[in-house]
Write a structure and sequence with these properties.
Largest sheet of chain B: none
Helix content of chain B: over 70%
Structural class of chain B: mainly alpha
Shape of chain A: globular
Order of helices and strands of chain B: HHHH
Number of helices of chain A: 7
Shape of chain B: elongated
Number of strands of chain A: 2
Strand content of chain A: under 5%
Distance between the termini of chain A: 53 Å
Radius of gyration of chain A: 22 Å
Oligomer: heterodimer
Strand order of the largest sheet of chain A: 1-2
Largest interface: A-B, 17 and 14 residues
Strand content of chain B: under 5%
Structural class of chain A: mainly alpha
Distance between the termini of chain B: 17 Å
Amino acid sequence: MATNPMHQFQVYKLGPEIKIAGIDLSFTNASLFMLLSAATICGLLFLGTKEKKIIPGKFQLISEIFYNFIAKMISDTAGSKAKPYFPFIFSLFMFVLFCNMLGMLPYSFTVTSHIIVTLLMAIFIFVAVTVIGFLKHGFGYLKLFVPSGVPAVLLPLITVIEIISYLSRPVSLSVRLFANMMAGHTMLKVFGGFVISLGVLGGWLPLSFSVALTGLEILVAFLQAYVFAILTCIYLNDALNLHH
Amino acid sequence: MELEAAKMIGAGLAAIALAGAGIGIGIIFGNYLSGAMRNPSAAQKQFPNLLLGFALAEATGLFGLVVALIILFAF
């Protein structure tokens, strides 16, 4: 193989090393791309809401499409009680989407292809949903683990399974996003390596595959952001509207 | 057996999990299409569920791929 396909995920320092209390806080390429995606989102939404016209311009149209998409998703999956959590889910979706999409540019870095980033977001969601559930329902939230309509013989087994599935939520949520991003980008690099090693005569087949895979990866980049947001809505729905 | 060879075989075995993801995605899209052919007016409403099912099915296969990559690169 020409180059290591995992090389693209390397985190390296940009600028001087900053250490505060033994923790390495240096500015890396990962932080650069996080800042870039946050700046892109802010710029897009700022331009979109600068002049509010009845007939929207390009940027206003894009912003409205994003807004309506997320608002509809929340009201469909979590009901009207989840309205106060709209800003959180909207910023979560936009951040994941723009990190994924900026990662599709050649020579860029995909922030979400590192499990520490996705795991942090997933743990935050998990803790937030659990706290919301206990605040809204008190200890009645524990009824989530005891589904109604189950025979009494099976109930201990089902409860254990429910608890395990609840606790594995942050793992599955984070590994899904991370694995999709990493596998997709590795696959693109491997096919790129085939193009180089097969040369001018045989390289056209993997090159055409590579083009098709780039299209698929853009779809996956959107889809994973969507799935991340919709699963957050589903978890919120469990915490807000507790009835099984 | 050499450790390196055993790692390669283990990673290859772990990647078999992707076969299940392929079957699952095929079932999801096939059933969506057959349902959409029977009742085209209801198809558009179920499209988000299709994408959700696709992503969930694909993710389980990718867990196997992650195991393969951990075997190859992390040990």
